[in-house]
Structures are given as structure tokens and as C-alpha cells.
Amino acid sequence: MKMFRQIGAVTAMNFRSLPQRVSTSLVVVIGIAGVVAVLVSVLAMSTGLIRTMENTGRDDRAIVLRSGSMAETSSALDRNSAKLIVDGAGIKHDANGDPITSAETMRILSLHKKDDDSEINVILRGVGPRMLEVRPELKIVEGRMFEPAVTEVIVGKSAHSQFKGLNVGDVVHSRGANWTVVGVFETGGDSHESSLMTYAETLISIDQRGSFQSVTALLDSPSSFQAFKDSLSSNPALAVDVVREREYYQQQSKNMSTIISIIAYVVGGIMAVGAVFAALNTMYSAVSARLQEIATLRALGFGSAAMVASVLAEALILALIGGVIGALLAWMFFNGNTVSTSGGGMGQMVFELAVSPQLMILGVVWACVIGVLGGLFPAMRAARLPVAMALRAV
Amino acid sequence: MKYFSLVWAGLWRKKTRTVFTMISIVVAFLLFGLLQGINQGFSVAMRTLDVDRLYVSARTGMTDGMPISYLQRIRNLPGVRAVSLWAYFGGYYQDARKVVPAFATDAAELFKVYKEIKIKPEYLAAMEKTRTGVLIRDTLATQYGWKVGDRIPIGTSIWTNKAGSNTWEFDIVGTFDASAYGMGFPAFYLNYSYFDEARSFGTGQVHYYIVSIQDPKQADRISREIDAMFANSSVETRTQTEFALAQSQLKQLGDINFIANAIVGAVLFTLLFLTANTMMQSVRERTSELAVLKTLGYSDTKVLLLVMTESLLLCLFAAALGIGLAAVVFQSPALQKLFGNFSMPTLVMMMGAGIAVAVAFVSGFPPAWRARQLNIVDALAGR
Lengths: 394, 383
Prior knowledge:
The structure holds 2 protein chains of 2 kinds.
Chain A: H1 2-17, H2 22-55, E1 61-66, H3 79-86, E2 101-112, E3 119-127, H4 131-134, E4 139-143, E5 152-156, H5 157-162, E6 171-174, E7 177-186, E8 196-199, H6 200-207, E9 214-218, H7 225-233, E10 240-244, H8 245-289, H9 291-299, H10 304-334, E11 338-342, E12 348-352, H11 357-384, H12 387-392
Parallel strand pairs in A: 3-8, 5-7
Antiparallel strand pairs in A: 1-9, 1-10, 2-3, 2-9, 4-7, 5-8, 6-7, 11-12
Helix pairs in contact in A: 1-10, 2-8, 2-10, 2-11, 8-11, 10-11
Chain B: H1 4-11, H2 15-47, E1 53-58, E2 66-67, H3 70-75, E3 80-88, E4 91-92, E5 99-100, E6 102-105, H4 107-113, E7 118-119, H5 121-129, E8 133-137, H6 138-144, E9 151-156, E10 167-177, E11 188-191, H7 192-198, E12 205-206, E13 208-213, H8 219-229, E14 237-241, H9 242-251, H10 256-285, H11 287-295, H12 300-330, H13 333-339, H14 346-373, H15 376-381
Helix pairs in contact in B: 1-12, 2-10, 2-12, 2-14, 10-14, 12-14
């Protein structure tokens, strides 16, 4: 009990003298704020990418690709297979007893970004006539839906805001066709918002391609997935892979988000090492500035644990302030910023940086670790100080 | 120079503090060196990319094919030295996750276009004789344990052959060494003539023509001529230099570059505070010593210069260490494989030195000025 009272008294005394050491203390705060801000904002990129991908896809939808294909771009399903897939077990049927599926194909369009005019690849997805039942989340926010059999497209909200020439009424050129933009859609912030859509048969006839690339099916319930998968894989006329839609999209963004996370931790780690030494410096000088004070306290009978705790507490508080400032800076400047990058087999992906509360907490935890590491050795020095010598130095 | 030992002694007056400050600066410049090095490294590597090579693809997109008939027409243009071609094969080995970057090509012409890639003449001859032959990069051979003479099944996500299968069998007839080019060079080549006969659809389609020209200065003219030749035809073309092509591929990565710069900015800003604080402390502690120097006849300016030099020495020494460390990292085998023969660009070293000097001045000046303004009597009296 006595020890805690001592710790409290010494720590309080420390903090009262903090204003005299403002500039040294600022070094810790600013240094750690920098580390945390960088760590949090880079991680916010991978979080944003993952979040967009997780939004894409529902548990009660499954995507069917040719066996062995990793992505829709490298998959192909002929008309016959597409017909057989529709008969799979567990697919939801509408009031007339027709299965709700969408056989889809895609091609890559070259478009330009609005901000720096750089050329990027964007997906034009051809969808089936029942697409709106398969994807009820799709809403037209401007203009209208495309008509079948004419070269009309609707563009996703993100694509519309990031890429040039996608306003309603604009014309997009591709091999063999000029597509008129007739509407803008949103799908609740998922990856489809970075793409364009049209009718699959229109796209297939223009590309003179004989096949679809994937079939997306709405299931009776998430639990019917296994039945659906089994019914297709047991069909000898089909060679397909069946994946839950959500898992498929997560897989597509995995590489990119892993790379970004690695960058964040490597860069953040290196910066943290620098910050630890900055904190060490500050705390050592804080200890040496209070040399006589500490020695006097020790001579009065304060224990060494109190000394250690007080120095550590000071380091920790400074680190905490720095960490919170860094996390807030990252949140203020980057949360909700849209950036775009190449999303694996998905063409150009537009997504929002997401500075989530978990990330901010992670940043503050890093700050505390840096603070403790930087405060530990100076604290031990304060505790081990030979009292007589320190007092003589006056 | 005679003051060097004085500055040196001042710098090491408090060893722990100097060492810790130095480590922080070293870390900052290590990070600077790594990020800017990679950043600049990309553009340096791109600038050395051959400007005498042009890439012709369909205007509407690189995955749209062009007819093989264009080959002869491009070859006949004045100033063209050699033309080869690429058609995507989209290969994998055993399982779609094990990607093999395979292209169908005209091998004899290909190695005329890519002069820097080393291959034995007998391998090229064997490729010509063996219809199902393939040439592979030595690194790919090591990766899968393939040897010359092996027969390997390669799957493709795009093409079915006339037998109705999408697994094709090839005979390895030779390997090549593309280390002079770096990572981006496709590692697996099959004969276009065989590929075109054996595929069940898309006959006569090519995705890239690679054109080697005699005089790099003619790159613009020839590019324009090629595109003009096919304007208003069924497939219009777009011709780019190797540099432009690589740059547009890098652009696909989007806003990554901005992030690297933002990080470096944050790091250096933090650093400024750190060094300024160290110098400030060190001058404050030495108030009486500096006063003694002045008593001994050192002029105000000389004292100012002494402190500035100390700050400069600290920053430059630590920056050199940090960038040196980054250069060592670049020599690691993993990164060498990624970038080809890559070393720390001189530009980055110069930038590093410049920044170190700037940090030294900004952080050293206030304490140096304070030292200059010191009044001997007040300082010695501890006022």
C-alpha cells in the first residue's frame, strides 16, 4: 500500500514538472504520432480493400467457374454447361418455378483515371436477364437500366466517380462496339461498383465468343451450398468448381491486401525502432534533469520501485498522447479517402480507406509498447542511482 | 580542419544521447533509402529499357488479338530490324495455382529482338526443328526441376487443342538466361507455328508484335507509321516503346507511389524535431564551456560555426550509415531477383545527402544562434 502511495506521489510530481521539459517531451509525442499515423493509414488501405471485397458477395450466392480456374477472367463455360448448372440442387426458384441464376461473361476495357489520366483496366461484365433477382442489392441511382440486344451499359458508382467519360450519355469504345452509358448503379459499396455492366448475350455476340465465364446462382439458403456443390460435381457432364461468392471475392483481393499489410508492418516496424531510440533519449534526459530530485527522494526513503514506476508512467503517458494524436491524424486525413489499385483478376478496384476503431486501437497499442521500451532503461537508471553520488553532483 | 577534434569532442560529450540520436537518424535514412530507392529504381530500370524496341497491340486492349498478316507488313517498313510476336498461352503446370507465363512466339526472331538475353545457338536450332519444342528461362527450370529433354504437360485456361484437351504436351529443347532483363521477361516460349495449327479456335491471332528498330531516334516516326498503316482496318493498333508500356503497367498499381512519399515525409518531419532537440540540449548543457571558448578569444561567428558543424557531422554521418544500410539490403538475393541487376541509384544518395544537410541546418541553427548570442559574463555566472 505504501509503495502505491509513493508511486502516486512521485508520478504526480513528475507530471507537475513536465512543462519545464516541453521540448524534449514533444520529441516522444511527435515521433510516436508519426509512427502510428503511418502504420494506421497504410493498414487502412488493406482494411478498405478487404472490406470492399467482403461486401461483395452473399453467403446465399454461389459462383460456378470452370474446374481449375482461379478467376472469372481465366474461366470459360459453354452454353451446354451453363444450361446444366441451372438444374443444380439448392437453387432458389421464383414464383413461376424458374431458377434464379445469371450466366456471366466479362471483358476488359481501357479507360482513363480522372485525376492523373493514367490508363487503367476496367471490367465490363455481361450479365443474365435475371441479374436483378440474383443481385437485389443493385439499384439504379441515375438514368435507367440497359436494354437487351443494344449496346448500352450501366456504370458502377465508384467507376463513375473515378474514371473519365462515364457520364450518362457518354460513349465508351471497345473492339467492335460503341457502348452508350445509360445509367449509374450502386451495389452497397462492393467491388462491382468499380465495373460496368451490360447484357451478356450482347457482349458475347460482339466479342464473337461462344461461351460464358461464370454462373452466379441465388441459393435457397446459405446452407444449401453443399447440396448445390455436390449436385454439380457429381454430374459427369460438368467440370466445374463451385465457390461461395463471398469466399471467391475474398480470394481475389488476398494477394494485394497481404502485400499492403506487409508493407505497413515492415515500414511501421522500422519507424518504431527509430521512435524507441527517440523515446530512450528523451527519458534519459528527463531522468538526468531530475537527478537531484530523484536522489533526494531516495534519501528520504522512497523505494526504487516508485522511481521505476514514475519514469515508466511518464513515458507511457507521452506515448499514449502521441499514439492518440497519430491515430486521429490518420483518421482525419485518410478515413473515407478513395484510392484505386489493381485488384488481381478484378481490373481496377476503387475502394475507400477504412480507419476502423480496431486499427486505431492497434496504433495506440504500438505507441504504448514503444513508450514502455523507451522508458524501461532510463527508469532502471533512476532506480539504481547511487544516492550519495547523485547528491554530491549538486 | 584544425577544429575537427574540438567538434568531435563536443559531439561525443554525452555518448548515449549522441548514439541514440544517431540510431534514430540512421533508421530514418534507412527507410528513406529503401522507399525512394525502390521508387527511383523502378524509373531508372525503366529508363534503361530499350527504346529501340516497340510493342504493337490492338488499340482496344492488349487482350484483343491482331491478325498474323500484320507481321509481314510491319517487317517491310523501312528502319525495322527484326519483328517477333507474342500470343498469350495462359499456362499452368498441374494446377491452376502454379502459373507458367507461357507465350507462343517466333523464337529465332525473338532472340534477335531481345539481344541482351543469352541463349546457346544449338538450343535455337533445336527449337526450329522440334515442333512441340519449348524454350524456358533457367530460373523456371530450377523452380520445377525441369531439364532439357523433358516432356511436360502444360494446362491453359484459354486454349483447347484440336484433340479437345486444354492440357498440351511440350518438349523442353533449351533454356535461356534473362538476368540482364530482370523479372518482367516471360519465361516460357512455344512455337507459334505449332500453336496456331493445334489450337481449335482463334487461328491467326497474335497479341503483341515486338519490333526492334535500327535507330532509337526513329522510334516516334516508326510508331506513328505502324499505327497509320492499320488505321481504319478491322483491328487498329497502338504502338508503344518499352518504356511507355512498362510505365502504363506500373500505373495500374495506382496510388501506391503517393503513399511511399507520404511516409518519407512523415519520417523526415519527425526526425527534424529529434535532431533539433538533441542539439538544443547539448548546447544548453555546454553554456559555460562555450563561454570559456569565447573568453579564450573565439569569435561569435566561430562559435556559431562550431555548433553548426557539429550538427552537420551528426546528420551526415548517420545519413550515410542509413543509406549505406539500405544499399546493402538492395544487394540481397531476393531483391536482385525482383529487379534484375539493381543497386542504390546515385540520385537517391544525392537526395539523402541533401536532406541530411537541410535537417542539420534547420535543427542546428537555433542552438547555434543561441551559442553565438551568449554573453560571456552571464553565461559563466550561470544566469
